[in-house]
Amino acid sequence: MNKPKHLIIYSHGFGVRKDDRGLFTDIAAALPGYDHLMFDYNQVDEAMGNLTVASLNEQAEHLRQVTAETKQNHPDATIDLICHSQGCVVAALANPEGIRKAIFTAPPAQLSIDSMLQLFKDRPGSDINLQGVSRLKRADFSTTNVPAVYWQSIEIDPIAHYNEFAKTVQLVLINATEDEIIGSQDFSELSSGIEVIEIATGHNFEGVTRQQLLTAITKELPKP
Q1: Which terminal CB of the chain, N or C, has fewer other CB atoms within 10 Å?
Q2: Tens of pLDDT, residues 63-89
Q3: What is the distance between the alpha carbons of residues 96 and 92, in angstroms, rounded to a whole number?
Q4: What percentage of the chain reaches a pLDDT higher than 90?
């Protein structure tokens, strides 16, 4: 078996599976010269399609472990990260060793309980319980279960963590300027060493702008 020379590890967003609803599989298909590693942060009810999310700290530790194991198993391989949405925050929190480049797609510039509640508090069928387990109804009619430990983990400053991460990793941020999920983002406090690419599209880079995203990523990660 050939040993991989270049691996991409993926970090998915809030309340989705490891393929980030097809976003990551599309990216992987556009990068055929690489080996790709996707994994779930969440506990998955395969029968019902429902998820139980881990805290950001637990997700960050999971990513550190995956990265360390990958590096141990393939010490000569180049390793990059591709992240989406809250998965960008997780990657910056993890700050794993041995990463060459990280590409953040639709990363949040701020994260808090209030900002998360704005997304779900008025959605029919959702039950918010910050001291217990919240049950959030999603657009695909599945339920995302959110334990109290998750809410306690998200009062952080993503920009500060992005800037710290960029001290050891080449970081590229792709901002969706028409993001209907997390809204307009202020990246004015980003380190000048972080490359920012803007695409006029929504949070999941749907429709014709999906190809724009793929083109931007393939320019950042040319065929090895």
Answers
A1: N
A2: 999 999 999 999 999 999 999 999 999
A3: 8
A4: 82
Q: CB under 8 Å to 151, separation ≥6 — which residues?
A: 113, 116, 130, 134
Alpha-carbon torsion 63, 42, 124, 141, what sign? positive
Amino acid at 15: G
Average pLDDT in the chain:
94
Token code pair at residue 22? 């097809």
Among 56, 87, 79, 58, CA closest to 168: 79
Q: In what order do the strands lie in the sheet with 101-105?
A: 35-37, 6-11, 78-84, 101-105, 170-176, 195-199
Neighbouring residues of 52: CB distance < 8 A, sequence distance ≥ 6: 42, 43, 45, 144, 145, 146, 147
Q: Which of 84, 63, 65, 54 is nearest to 152 (CA)?
A: 54
> Residue 55: pLDDT above 60?
yes
The DSSP bridge pattern shows strands 101-105 and 170-176 to be parallel
Helix pair 86-94, 158-165: axis angle to 10 deg: 50
What pLDDT does 116 receive? Answer: 87
* Residue 134, CB-side half-sphere exposure with 13 Å CA sphere: 23
User: Tens of pLDDT along 167-221?
Assistant: 999 999 999 999 999 988 999 999 999 999 999 999 999 999 999 999 999 999 9
* 164 class by beta-carbon count within 10 Å (0-12 exposed, 13-18 middle, 19+ buried): middle
- Are residues 60 and 156 in contact, defined by beta-carbon separation less than 8 angstroms? no
Amino acid (one-letter) located at 213: L
